[in-house]
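User: Second chain of the day. Same drill as before.
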Amino acid sequence: MRKEEVKKWIDDCHKKHKKAAIYFCSFVPVEILEAAGFQTLQITHLEENGDLYPEELPKNVCPIVRECCEICESGVLEQADLIIAESSCDGKKKMFELLKDQSKVYYYQVPQGEEQEYVLPLIASESRYLIKMLEQRFGITVTDEAIRKAANDTNRQRASAMNLLAVQQQVPPCAWGMEVYEKLQENMKLPTSEERIAANEKVREEFLGREEKVPETAPRILLTGCPIGGVYQKIIEIVEKNGGVVVCFENCECIKSNIRFTDVKKDDIIASLAECYQNTACAIMTPNQKRKKLLEQLVTSYQIAGILDIHLQPCHAYTVEKYSVERHFSQQGIPYAAIETGYSDADKAQLSTRIAAFLEILQ
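Assistant: Same format as last time:
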């Protein structure tokens, strides 16, 4: 997505008499925002941004944090009605505090415990604070019925995304990983759940109807680790130009966020939302057994030949967690490689050498 596309997306919301909410992390309960009448857009990367170094931040901060800062300060979101500042990592939450214009910012606290008893009440409490803020700031009423409907729509949207990604479970795969990732991200720009669902279903049918498949001999790669919006092109290109195929994206913007569903039949819809968002296999969770269990499930269902773990320098959570993930899968005999990179293309040749060597082992 480009800056002008974001501005147009916000403008189109206002033309439809809708408010525009921008968020950067899949821990944000979009169901509540949409129940409040907002259209929501998650920004994972803007194409023209490259490797940015905002003067407000030290240079050794994660590129995602640096880019979030640049997006918020550049005027791209000037007409947005709400910016959700979630505390998913230490660097990002402190970055949000530096933003010059705080009038549209709302701070949403993300829990970092996987199974502790306090986690579900904390998520529920944060959800209720979000509802209270929306009602007070915008003069609206957010009902349980509206949240339940939004949750049902979000469930259907996530199911359509999972169904689209699942075409790669076929042997040979229906499409190249680059095509699948870009189509899914393109569909997520659409303003409503119904449009996203229809687009995902259309692309899925197109992929399934192809006569020319990916070569069956191509090693099947699973990508995991940090969000890859700013690096997906070089990583996937290197894998697929060296004879492999990315069949599975466990990363935040793909399976990790779309595999969660809300039980809309429960009486307490806020508690049900809390259970959904607790079930997020992110490295900020401690301990984080959910991620290993999810990866095990994906290795089996996508018939994975090797795992490629992508770390953005210096994302401490994922970079440190790689040691336990590598140990876990090496004990199971599943090939694993970790790659550290950033938004610059300066390391492309080095990455190509490392990834090509990994693929050679798998062939």
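The chain has a mean pLDDT of 95.

User: Great, on to the next one.
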